[in-house]
Write a structure and sequence with these properties.
By secondary structure, the chain is mainly beta. The protein is built from three helices and 42 strands. The strands form eleven sheets. A six-stranded antiparallel β-sheet has the order 6-5-2-1-35-36, with no helix packed on it. The longest helix has 14 residues. It is globular. It starts with a helix and ends in a 15-residue tail after the last strand. About 55% of the residues are buried. Bound molecules: 2-acetamido-2-deoxy-beta-D-glucopyranose (6 copies). The site of one 2-acetamido-2-deoxy-beta-D-glucopyranose (NAG) has 6 residues, from loops. This is Copper radical oxidase.
Length: about 550
């Protein structure tokens, strides 16, 4: 058995030298970590090789221990959907598209996904065997059709679902759904109309929303921003993105809530990339060669910060469709995307094959939020790839501290002989600490309440300077269309015991600072990060949950 497995491994690596860490069976255009060992990926029916029940699968579970995937059954089409994890640890996928009948077939295996709600209950199987996605479109569906919506977990552990479109959009949002709704539903299932979304048509697909530590939601769409009070149901206009830069689909920049730190958890939003092109010309008048924006804009969401407005910084290069990953040491990895063009397929005047974008950016850049203005971007030690990750790519931090990279398909079907092919190769970007002797944590409780001191065992390599200690609680978010919705990093106050064998940290003060759900706790000592341990944060009940912990 052993030697057989060994031979198989050996021959695989000899035969497939360019396959870095396996290949997915679908395009990984949506990616979310659903357990310490499993990533769930979603796509559509467009000729992907992965099969289930005699037809193409469009959902796949990726086992991080073996770097192999298995198909998962779904009922409706998950293309350009969003999702997040609820306060009880259940992952929900929302929205999707109308199916297309595959070439040579008379029916599609997938149903209309625009009102889709798909439930992935917590699944203990490390390999994903027997983990299922539940769907019953007749009884469980959104209030309205939403293709290209965003969704984020809010303070009561439910999901806020933002915008989207009703119908196929070749480029601009031509059939906008300018409203919010929730899962589980609020307001007896009625949607809430959003003047902000109406104003930001036609570049308001996949709005970027952030749950702030006071429970309000900051939303970015097109070149505008707003503060939404979920409880009072009011929108307050916030400063627009400077210099007319547009940052949502189909002019995808990306955005993140920067790490929150005790004692005040002052929220700051960073928005990077996108395009300063006009949104008032037909897409055929735009070019795949139009330079992407190199602008990053940062704002502190306090009365003083709002008064001061956005501070502009410049990345080393422009990026359309970048993504940002919050690293456990508080730095922000900016990765993927293109130097020119736009998101979406075959709609500009001069697409490259089907791709509206060109000039893939192959080297990531690290942003240090705490460095002085002008000194925040660095590429020291960051590797360059030769795999383009353009439209329909997915990326996520994993519990090992590595970055999982997959997908890219700027094509309507599987294409293997274009400049920008359908990409099935999986890569991992391994930070320098992954090859070092690292701190290890053990003895975690499975669940912790807010505002509690928690003590765990720690083993620290002798060469690390323990005066430089960070403990981060991370939600890795849901990656779709150049955005990690619900992604969040909260630093925790922490202290080592005198003998350095015990680590005590204080959980977030309340469910608004960290919307309740499982998170991963990482410790970084002397810039060497441990693996992340999954812990349920809060009471673990089904949403909506009551306020917990102490107010700020
Ligand atoms: C999956 O289900 C099958 C059939 O019920 C069972 O035989 C198998 O042990 C299960 N596998 C795991 C990993 O739970
Ligand atoms: C949404 O799209 C469907 C076709 O899929 C169409 O029948 C319907 O009228 C559209 N609704 C709106 C509000 O645009
Ligand atoms: C945002 O875009 C709209 C539509 O193109 C434009 O009218 C408006 O002036 C822009 N706002 C800013 C602040 O650039
Ligand atoms: C638009 O963005 C491009 C690329 O970053 C830049 O060269 C140009 O100066 C910008 N134009 C304006 C009016 O800001
Ligand atoms: C946690 O421990 C610290 C240090 O002993 C103490 O100051 C703090 O009050 C404790 N916090 C809670 C929530 O118990
Ligand atoms: C979590 O809550 C959702 C929404 O009510 C529900 O569908 C799901 O079954 C719940 N999961 C668990 C594990 O309780």
């Amino acid at each position: 058995m052993l030697s057989l497995a060994f031979c198989r491994l050996l021959s695989l690596s000899l035969l497939l030298p360019s396959l870095l860490n396996g290949t997915t069976g679908i395009t990984a255009l949506e990616v979310i970590l659903v357990s310490p060992t499993l990533i769930l990926m979603m796509d559509r029916v467009s000729g992907d090789p992965l099969q289930i029940d005699g037809h193409q699968a469009w959902v796949e579970l990726w086992d991080l221990e073996t770097n192999t995937g298995i198909p998962v059954n779904a009922v409706t089409d998950t293309f350009c959907a969003s999702g997040a994890v609820l306060s009880n640890g259940t992952m929900v996928s929302l929205g999707g598209e109308t199916p297309e009948i595959p070439a040579g077939e008379t029916t599609a295996p997938d149903g209309d996904g625009r009102m889709g709600i798909r439930i992935f209950e917590p699944c203990a199987s490390p390999s994903g065997d027997n983990c299922t996605l539940f769907e019953d479109p007749a009884t469980l569906h959104l209030a309205v059709t939403r293709w290209y919506p965003s969704s984020l977990r809010i303070f009561d552990g439910s999901l806020m679902i933002i915008g989207g479109t009703n119908a196929s959009t070749p480029f601009y949002n031509v059939a906008p759904e300018n409203s919010f709704e929730f899962f589980p539903p609020k307001d007896n299932g009625q949607v809430r109309f959003s003047p902000f979304l109406e104003r930001t048509v036609p570049v308001n697909l996949f709005p970027r929303g952030f749950a702030l530590p006071d429970g309000k939601v900051f939303i970015v769409a097109n070149n505008e921003t707003v503060l939404y009070d979920v409880e009072a149901q009011t929108e307050t206009v916030m400063p627009p993105i400077p210099n007319g830069v547009r940052v949502t689909n189909p002019m995808d920049g990306t955005a993140t809530l920067l790490p929150l730190s005790p004692p005040d958890y002052v929220p700051e939003i960073l928005v990077c990339g996108g395009s300063n092109s006009t949104d008032t010309v037909p897409s055929a008048d735009l070019s795949s060669q139009d330079p992407a924006s190199d602008q990053c804009s940062r704002i502190t969401v306090t009365p003083e910060g709002i008064e001061k407005g956005w501070i502009v910084e410049r990345m080393p290069e422009g990026r359309m469709m970048p993504e940002m990953i919050l690293m456990p040491n508080g730095k922000v990895l900016i990765i993927n995307g293109a130097g020119t063009g736009y998101a979406a397929l075959h709609s500009v005047g001069d697409p490259i094959g089907n791709s509206n974008s060109d000039h893939p950016v192959f080297t990531p850049v690290l942003y240090d939020p705490n460095a002085a203005l002008g000194e925040r971007f660095s590429r020291e030690g960051l590797p360059t790839t030769d795999i383009a990750r353009l439209y329909h790519s997915g990326v996520t931090l994993t519990p090992s501290g590595s970055i999982f990279l997959a997908g890219s398909n700027p094509n309507p079907t599987v294409v293997e002989s274009a400049t920008f092919n359908t990409e099935f190769r999986v890569q991992f970007l391994n930070p320098p600490f992954t090859t070092r002797s690292r701190p290890t944590l053990s003895g975690f409780p499975e669940q912790v309440a807010f505002n509690q001191n928690v003590t765990v065992d720690i083993d620290i390599p002798g060469d690390l300077d323990t005066s430089n200690l960070q403990v981060a609680l991370i939600d890795m978010g849901f990656s779709s269309h150049a955005f990690h919705s619900s992604s969040r990093l909260v630093f925790l106050n922490a202290k080592l015991s005198a003998n350095k064998k015990l680590l005590t940290f204080t959980t977030p003060p309340n469910n608004r600072v960290y919307p309740p759900a499982p998170g991963y706790v990482f410790v970084t000592i002397d810039d060497v990060t441990s693996t992340g341990t999954r812990v349920m944060i809060g009471n673990g009940l089904s949403p909506p949950v009551a306020d917990q912990g102490v107010p700020l």
